[in-house]
Design goal:
The protein is of the alpha+beta class. Helices cover about 55% and strands about 10% of the residues.
Length: about 500
C-alpha cells in the first residue's frame, strides 16, 4: 500500500512538473502575441466563452487584437484563436497532420463514438479509414439515396397535415427544432443502416431523447466544468451524469449497428446502397486488414451522430431565415414549384436561389462554432500579415498549444465578404466568382474536411423543396443562438433549443 501511495505522489508530481514546464514554455514563446488579460486565475476566459452569446468574444477579440489572438484557459494554459487566411490554409491543408484534434476532443469522440474517422489521427491511419468510409459518403452515394430524402420529407408533410386536421385549422404552430431532429435521425438511419427509427411518427423516441439529452441543455455548472477542464484532463469525461450519458449513447448506437451488421442479407446484398454496405464493400476491396465489428460500429456511430446534430441544426436555422425573409421564401417557392422531385444533380445545379439561401445559412449559422487543433510539435506557421508589434510573416507555435479557428468570425470577415458581412444576404452567392473564390469552413476543408457534405446538402435541400411546396412559414418570436454541441436556435430566454414557427397550409 505504501508503494502505491508513493507511486501516486510521484505520478502527480511529474504531471504537475510537466504541466508547468509546458505552461512556462508557452508563455515565453507566445509573449508577443496580443490578447485579453485573463479574467480568472482558475478559469481564464473559459467561463466568459461558455456563458456569453456563442462566438461573441471571438468577434470582439479579433476586432481588437487582429488575426492571431492569445487567450487563457483553465489554470493558465495558453490558447490561440486564429483567423489569418494563410495560417488557416496551412493548418487545414499542408499541415493537417501536424495539427491533430486536441486530446480532450479525441477523448470525447473515442468515448462517445469509438475509434472512427473523427477520432483517428496520423496520415496513414486517417487515409486508411477514409478509403473505407469515403465511398459511402461520395456524391454518387448521395445521388443514389436522394429518393430516400424525398420519401422522409413526404412522410413529414403527411404528419404535419395530420396536425392541421386535428386542430381543424390551416395555420398552426410547429416546433421546428423537434421536427428537424426527427427528420435528420430517420433519414440517416435509413440511409446508413436501412433502418427506420420511425421518429417522424411524432411520438417520443428513446434514441432521439438520448442524443438530445447529451448536449441540448441549459448551461449548467457541471457542463461548464467538464468543457473547461477536458482540454487538460480528458479523463473528466468519464465522471458523473454526463459520463453516464456518453456511455449510454455509445452503447445504444453501437448495439444498433452491431445488430444490423449481423443481418447477413442486409450487409451482403451487392445491390444495397446503404452507407454500411458501401463502406463494407470498399473496406473489402482496399484494406489489407479488414475492419472488425467494433470498428464498423464506430464508423456507424460517427455517421449517425454527424448526420443528426449538425444537419438538424442547419435545417432549423434555414427555416428560421425563411420565416424571417418572406420575399426570399416566396421566390424560392416559385423556383422549386416544378413537376416532380428534383434529382441530386438538379438540386445542386438547377435552383440558384435555393442554393444561395442554403450557403448563406451555412455562412451565418455554421453548426460548429470552433474548429480546434493542437500543435503536435513546435512548428512555424505562415501568416498573411505580421502579428501586432512584430514584422515576422510567420509564428512559432509551441508543442501542445491548442488552436481555435472561430468559424463565425472567419465567415463574417468584412475583407472577404464585404461591408455587409454581418447581414443575411443570399444574393451575394449569385454574384460571379463567389462560389470559387470564397470557401466556407462550415464543413471544414482540406484532407480532414467533412466527407458527408454532399449528403447533408442534398438532404436539406430535398426537405426544403418539399415543405415549401406545401406550407408557408413565419416566426413570431425573438430567436437567439444557443451553444450545445452545435449552435442551435432557441426562443430568447428559454433554456434549450426551440423554434416555434407559425405554419400555414398552402396546398
Amino acid at each position: 500500500m505504501l508503494y502505491i501511495y508513493h507511486f501516486s505522489i510521484a505520478f502527480v508530481f511529474v504531471y504537475m512538473l510537466r504541466f508547468f514546464q509546458q505552461r512556462l514554455s508557452s508563455l515565453l514563446a507566445l509573449r508577443h502575441v496580443p490578447g485579453p488579460k485573463s479574467s480568472s486565475w482558475v478559469w481564464g476566459e473559459e467561463k466568459a466563452l461558455y456563458y456569453n452569446t456563442p462566438g461573441a468574444l471571438y468577434v470582439d477579440w479579433h476586432h481588437t487584437y487582429g488575426n492571431v489572438v492569445k487567450f487563457t484557459g483553465a489554470f493558465g494554459h495558453q490558447l490561440l484563436s486564429v483567423t489569418d487566411p494563410h495560417a488557416i490554409s496551412f493548418i487545414l491543408g499542408e499541415g493537417t497532420y501536424q495539427f491533430p484534434k486536441p486530446k480532450g476532443v479525441r477523448a470525447w469522440f473515442r468515448m462517445l463514438l469509438g475509434e472512427g474517422i473523427l477520432w483517428v489521427e496520423g496520415k496513414e491511419a486517417h487515409e486508411k479509414q477514409r478509403r473505407s468510409v469515403g465511398p459511402a459518403l461520395s456524391p454518387q452515394s448521395a445521388r443514389n439515396l436522394t429518393p430516400v430524402f424525398y420519401e422522409n420529407a413526404a412522410k413529414m408533410v403527411a404528419r404535419w397535415h395530420g396536425l392541421f386536421d386535428a386542430q381543424n385549422s390551416d395555420e398552426i404552430v410547429i416546433e421546428m427544432t423537434n421536427w428537424a431532429g426527427r427528420f435528420a435521425l430517420d433519414t440517416v438511419g435509413r440511409a446508413t443502416l436501412s433502418y427506420d427509427f420511425d421518429c417522424l411518427r411524432g411520438q417520443p423516441h428513446a434514441l432521439a431523447e438520448t442524443l438530445d439529452g447529451l448536449t441540448n441543455h441549459e448551461k449548467s455548472h457541471t457542463s461548464f466544468y467538464m468543457k473547461a477542464l477536458f482540454w487538460l484532463l480528458p479523463s473528466i469525461l468519464h465522471l458523473g451524469k454526463k459520463g453516464q450519458m456518453i456511455r449510454k449513447t455509445r452503447k445504444e448506437l453501437g448495439d444498433l449497428a452491431t445488430d444490423i451488421l449481423k443481418d447477413a442479407e442486409a450487409v451482403s446484398d451487392p445491390n444495397s446502397k446503404t452507407l454500411m454496405s458501401l463502406m463494407l464493400r470498399a473496406d473489402k476491396a482496399t484494406a489489407v486488414v479488414r475492419m472488425d465489428e467494433e470498428q464498423v460500429a464506430a464508423q456507424m456511430r460517427t455517421i449517425i451522430s454527424a448526420g443528426y446534430e449538425p444537419v438538424s441544426a442547419t435545417i432549423a436555422w434555414l427555416f428560421f431565415e425563411l420565416a424571417t425573409n418572406l420575399e426570399w421564401q416566396q421566390a424560392i417557392r416559385d423556383e422549386v414549384s416544378t413537376a416532380g422531385d428534383p434529382t441530386f444533380d438538379e438540386l445542386n445545379n438547377s435552383y440558384p436561389l435555393l442554393d444561395a439561401f442554403f450557403l448563406e445559412t451555412l455562412r451565418l449559422h455554421p453548426p460548429v462554432l470552433e474548429n480546434h487543433h493542437e500543435a503536435a510539435e513546435t512548428i512555424s506557421i505562415p501568416l498573411s500579415e505580421p502579428v501586432a508589434g512584430s514584422g515576422d510573416l510567420h509564428l512559432v507555435i509551441p508543442k501542445g498549444t491548442i488552436i481555435s479557428l472561430p468559424v463565425n468570425v472567419i465567415q463574417k470577415d468584412k475583407l472577404i465578404w464585404g461591408f455587409d458581412a454581418d447581414d443575411f444576404r443570399p444574393e451575394r452567392w449569385l454574384q460571379r466568382g463567389t462560389r470559387t473564390s470564397r470557401e466556407l469552413l462550415a464543413f471544414s476543408v482540406g484532407p480532414r474536411g467533412c466527407l458527408g457534405r454532399n449528403f447533408a446538402a442534398a438532404e436539406i435541400k430535398a426537405l426544403t423543396v418539399t415543405l415549401l411546396r406545401h406550407f408557408a412559414f413565419s416566426c413570431p418570436h425573438e430567436i437567439e443562438a444557443f451553444q450545445s454541441f452545435v449552435i442551435r436556435p432557441r426562443v430568447k430566454g428559454e433554456s434549450s433549443s426551440s423554434l416555434p414557427l407559425l405554419v400555414r397550409r398552402t396546398l
